[in-house]
């Protein structure tokens, strides 16, 4: 089974939608997790390897955007702001389609730094994925949508959002885009990303979003067709980003829990240790507490956000938050 291939640096984005053929209703939604290490798609249940949600444009509008042309055609781009640098260990995208099972289709996804929309010209490519053999809709029409979470931790494909703050929203500006290809088209080619609705609702989990998206005539984001909005629907495409961990922090997920690694399991020399956060790990950290520089993960520098070479209160808090976890 072919599945995920890291792809070269391209870019792309999406255009205005007023009503009619450009927006279609989502009749129902199913959920799945894609392990990029194995290419296996499974129900979205059980343990996860990535961390907590750190950015989420996930409030559903009930509609999806129709991408009328595939391959080297029009592409869409959306954007937001995130506190960073932020390691991304997984993300969730959402789409709907009138293509029905047993057909499968492919999707290209891209992420950029220094992207603030409105035809930003200095965007920096961060990561790209060509995801193959995605499921399609129900022949009976009961559901036509999927939300697929891509597990980057499993395959070591984590990437970091880092860069400039280009606007008045606090945080680093980033952009994302996804489009679908390589499938058997059906009536009107109705396929495209889910429209998230207004992610500004309280509590706000998607800072930096704006009621607009860019549309380009090519997948390299070079020929801008314009910046657009929808009529009566906030113009944001579904995306959720999950916390990732530094490459040297490996281990097991907490069964049925928050999805956080037992990254505080340090009493072992080298990961993955025994995947239990115990008194031995606490003793290891306390033995190095107060180290002001040069501390490694195994010494107790376990706060994945800071990762600053110190062993301090933030690291102790991170360990205590997982104390007693058995990730086996």
Residues in helices, as a percent range: under 10%
The arrangement of helices and strands along the chain is EEEEEEEEEEEEEEEEEHH
Largest sheet: 8 strands, mixed
Number of helices: 2
Number of DSSP-assigned strands: 17
**What structural class results from the helix and strand content?**
mainly beta
Q: Quote the average pLDDT.
A: 80
Give the percentage of residues in beta strands: 25-35%
Radius of gyration equals: 21 Å
Shape type = globular
How many distinct folded domains? 2
Q: What's the N-to-C terminus distance?
A: 28 Å
Q: Detail the poorly predicted runs.
A: 1-20, 254-260
Description:
The protein is mostly beta strands. The protein folds into two domains: 240 residues, no CATH class; 81 residues, no CATH class. 6% of the residues lie in helices and 32% in strands. The strands form three sheets. Strands 3, 4, 5, 8, 11, 12, 14 and 17 form an eight-stranded mixed beta sheet that branches. Strands 1-10-9-13-7-15-16 form a seven-stranded antiparallel beta sheet, with no helix packed on it. A hairpin with a 4-residue loop joins strand 3 and strand 4. Helix 1 packs antiparallel against helix 2. The radius of gyration is 21 Å and the shape is globular. The N terminus is likely disordered.
